[in-house]
Amino acid sequence: GIKISINITGTTVVTADFIELVEEMNKEYDFAHNNICIEVTEKEDLPFNDDNLNALRRIVDTGLVLAIDDFSMGQTSINYLKYDLFSIIKIDGGLVKGLTTSSNCREIIASISKLAESLDMKVIAEFVQTEEEREILHNIGVDYFQGYLYSPAKPLNEK
């Protein structure tokens, strides 16, 4: 089936209005039987605290999948990983851009992949532009790839 990902900022995803909207929509659409992922961008602050943890749990309880988007670039606390709330880590394209020229970038991505695997999470690399990058990423444990190698971004009305 088709998988749908929706980008939401860290500050929005934990608001009462958003949580209530998700729970109301779940009553009508039953998210547990859909492939819908909420990508929480790491570029915006999502402080680690009990209120935010409970808000994220409420989202996961509806059957939605949570992903940390732009991992390595922002403010999301790694503490969230220990609570089994997020299912996916999306590695920021900034790390992928340095992949072919920097052994440090490769080692960081490999470490993130190993961490994700040990936590039963999947890893998506963003900004994959060449077959060489895809091959390196595959060899260091990345599960999925996103970028111009497959398709440039397209407007909604274009097929």
**Could you give the count of β-strands?**
6
Instruction: Provide the low-confidence segments as ranges.
Output: none
Largest sheet: 6 strands, parallel
CATH architecture, by name, is Alpha-Beta Barrel
CATH fourth-tier homologous superfamily? EAL domain
Topology:
Blueprint: E1 4-9, H1 10-13, H2 16-29, E2 36-41, H3 50-61, E3 65-71, E4 86-91, H4 93-97, H5 103-118, E5 122-125, H6 131-139, E6 144-145
Structure in words:
The protein has 159 residues and is α/β, with parallel strands linked by helices. The chain has one domain: EAL domain (TIM Barrel, Alpha-Beta Barrel). Helix content is 38%, strand content 19%. It has 6 helices and 6 strands. A 6-stranded parallel β-sheet has the order 1-2-3-4-5-6. Strand 5 (122-125), helix 6 and strand 6 form a beta-alpha-beta unit. It is globular, with a radius of gyration of 16 Å. The chain starts with a strand and ends in a 14-residue tail after the last strand. The model has no long low-confidence stretch (mean pLDDT 90).
Task: List descriptors.
single chain, 159 residues, alpha/beta, TIM Barrel, 6-stranded parallel sheet, globular
Quick synopsis:
It is built from six helices and six strands. With 159 residues, it is α/β, with parallel strands linked by helices.
